[in-house]
Amino acid sequence: MARAPLAAARWRQTVWGELLSEFLGTLVLIAFGDGVVAMAVAALNQSGRGTQIFAASGDWLLIAWGWALAVTFGVYVAGGVSGAHINPAVTLALAVRRDFPWRKVVPYWVAQLVGAFVGAALVYLVYHQAIGSFEAAKHITRGTLGGAADSTPTFSIFATFPAPYFGSSTIGPLIDQIVGTAFLLMFVLALTDERNQPPRMNMAPLLVGLAVAAIGMSFGANAGYAINPARDFGPRFFAWLAGWGRVALPGVHGYVWVPIVGPLVGGVVGAVVYDLFIRDVLVARGVPPAADVEVKGRTVEEEPTGPASDVEAQGRTIRER
Question: How many CA atoms within 13 Å lie on the side-chain side of 142?
Answer without folding.
Answer: 17
